Amino acid sequence: MEYFLQQLINGVTLGSIYGLIAIGYTMVYGIIGMINFAHGDIFMVSSFISLIVFLALLSLGLTFIPLALFLVLVISMVITAAYGWTVERLAYRPLRDSFRLAPLITAIGMSIVLQNYVQIAQGARVKPLPPIIKGSYTLMEHDGFIVQISNMQIIIILTTLILMLGFSWLISRTSLGRSQRACEQDRTMAALLGVNVDRTISLTFVIGAALASVAGFMYLLYYGVIDFYIGFVAGIKAFTAAVLGGIGSLPGAMLGGLIIGLIETFWSAYFSIEYKDVAAFATLAIVLIFMPSGLLGKPEVEKV
Amino acid sequence: MNQSANQGFPLLKVEHLTMRFGGLTAIDDLSFSAAQTDITAIIGPNGAGKTTVFNCLTGFYKPSEGMISLTHPDRTRFLLERMDDFRICSKARVARTFQNIRLFAGMTLLENLLVAQHNQLMKASGFTIGALLGLVSYQPHEKQAIELARHWLDKIGLVERADDHAADLPYGDQRRLEIARAMCTDPLMLCLDEPAAGLNPKESDQLNRLLLDIRREEQIAILLIEHDMSVVMEISDHVIVIDYGRKISSGTASYVRNDKKVIAAYLGVENEEGQGAEVKP
What we know:
Chain A is mostly helical. Chain A has helices at 2-32, 39-59, 65-92, 101-122, 151-173, 175-185, 187-192, 197-223, 230-245, 250-270, 276-290, and strands at residues 127-128, 136-142, 145-150, 225-226. Chain A has one domain (16-233). In chain A, strands 1-4 form a two-stranded antiparallel sheet. Chain B folds into 2 domains: 1-93 and 187-281, Rossmann fold (3-Layer(aba) Sandwich), CATH 3.40.50.300; 102-186, P-loop containing nucleotide triphosphate hydrolases (Rossmann fold, 3-Layer(aba) Sandwich), CATH 3.40.50.300. In chain B, strand 9 (238-243) and strand 10 (246-251) form a beta hairpin. Classes of the chains: A mainly alpha, B alpha/beta.
């Protein structure tokens, strides 16, 4: 029981990070119907930006850690959002009216570009960061087994929760969110109502990248090790999460992220750590057999 | 020949509009104008090029030749053929509907009407960022937008269904909701592509009244493609008949109804040998 609880906490933490990345996949798919394979690498870039900004702030003499971390988060969000915007502008917008596979291919190309760029600029070796946020709470103790939740885990879960609430509000209540949903349903009609579709799509990429940068920031602090390759694995997992939850559905992405995180953690804990990815992807395959549009996705309706 | 019924300020001027698709000339040297506060109907047999005219007006197609100019009452002139589709709506203030219904089906009625007011709201909210940081007061604008949306919902008699999904409405209501949504963009010219298609006589009567109301209260130009002659005859001030992309007649409804060319285009002409009528598709 204690072991289960401990794994549950770990799983929710991991799931939060996946969920934040998955939102970027699902939003972009929803609005322009393409899979942005470079999104995982945007996440990776953001964790590097966080590390660099953090070290820079430290060397500038900012030693008050909470303020430093807050500044790192804000700066990293802004720079990563610029990356997201640039990727869309360079690689996807020129191909907007091209055949369906073209942006998919440039997405994969963009992913490779970002990986190699970071590998060359930052080196291929892993970058460590000593734990910054220490301390944890003991929730219960039984037969010598301790259930703990670390401060870092609390921060990750709370930040994700707040971001997701804010983001849901943005999509459902604001004019920006309404125009995004309108573009999702009928881009032509949205344009005829005066919505600047190109700008709305750019903003979608910017928001997705900003959320991924929060994930990248927390990944860096939680695991303490990053390299140029983390974006690939995390990206594929988050993409799986988005598909599992129903691609195009925002609550689906959040739920999918949570489920993938939990499956991975529990499989590693109770069965074998080597096969955790197999378990995650097998779950996806099984769910898609019985629910082809994912857990919360709507069946694809042909637009007439 | 062309009897002009334009009285008001000439809002729209289409000159020598030609649209070719490869070897096919869909519109051939078409010129007409539409006055503010007039209801102008464009009629013609199937495939005459009516919808193509609308597509040129709203930036869907770039015309092969010709000029489409829209002059606002403050004398600002817009050349529609050179503008992006979303600017035609937001700057030149032209709104349109389609032959098929294109509501945002997954959104509520109110949201459909609020999307149409997107630009004002984005500006008011400092492109969302300002409002998120609390720099600008966004609430009054949002309230105003909702009020306008409710005004139009009230006009089409759907105010109590404001929070239902647009997809759940019956067909006739969806048609009127589209017009209400177009009106929420605050247009000076409203282009309606077969608004009465598929409506029963009662609904089509409601539509007539709605359009006459809009013309009277909003003082805007309405451009109308229609097959339903009861609508055309009852409400239009000016009718333009096109066939094979050319204007064959124009004038008041009663004038074009009796024009031989129009009758010929619709019913076919007797050929010279007198072997009977050939009905064009």
